Structure formats: C-alpha cells, structure tokens
C-alpha cells in the first residue's frame, strides 16, 4: 500500500466491527498495526502465538504472546505472555476495564489538583498586579506536588484489586 490507499484502508477498517487479515505475510501484519498507529493515533494491542507474529507484536504498543505449538518466539518478544488463548478474555474484559476506571479516576483527580493550584495563583495575580510574584515558596510548591501526586497513587494502589 502506498500513498492514498493506506488512508482508504484505515477508513474502511474503522467502519467495520472486526477486521481479519487472512493470508498475509508477517511484514504485512506489522504494516497494518503501523497504519493504525499512524492515522488513528490509537494505542494498539497485538496478540500472536508464533514466530510469524513477532514483527506485529513488536510494532504494537502492547504485545501479548501466547505460548503454543508454534514455539516460544512470540512469548519472548512480547510484553505479556499467556499459556493459552482462554486467558485473554479475563485480560481484556476484566483487567482492561479496571485499568480504564483507574485512569479515569486519576485523570479527574490530577485535573482537580492542578486546577486548584492554578486558581490560587490566578486569584493572587489580581492582588499582585500580575507581577509574576508567587503566593507560595518554592519548597511549598514542591511539597504540594510531591504529596498530592504520590499519596493518592499509593493509597489507591493499596486498596486496588
């Protein structure tokens, strides 16, 4: 695929619920993953069980290798590995959902933390004539970021599933 055909393939694939690439070479598998990374700016996940899937696994952001009859090449080049395909359901449906919920909580929290910190400085700007003078000392700003960035992560990790 060259030029405009790449974009057309990605557009057609995005209109489908499932895309299956049959009878393609290992290089073409990696190129399909690269197209999605390039045009959709999405996080990609590649799952493979043999040596022919290694280039696709390495190209994707997250690679999952299944140890099977074809050997261990996919497992050795992947980020995560499983013994059987049936363990993928729990990874994608359970742990993937929990990870998404955690990220949403942290995103809301860090937005709130930074908004509160910036709002104080913005409000103080009215009183200081926008002279770039800060409300807090440098050590307090460092302590604020350290405490309000590390403690929620530690607290949530202690009570996480």
From TrEMBL:
One of its GO terms (molecular function) is ATP hydrolysis activity. The chain crosses the membrane at residues 109-127, 139-159. It is found in: Membrane. GO terms for cellular component: plasma membrane; trans-Golgi network. GO terms for biological process: Golgi organization; phospholipid translocation. Residues 75-161 form the P-type ATPase C-terminal domain. It is a multi-pass membrane protein. It comes from the Eukaryota. Keywords: Magnesium, Membrane, Metal-binding, Transmembrane, Transmembrane helix. This is Putative phospholipid-transporting ATPase IM. It comes from Phaethon lepturus (White-tailed tropicbird).
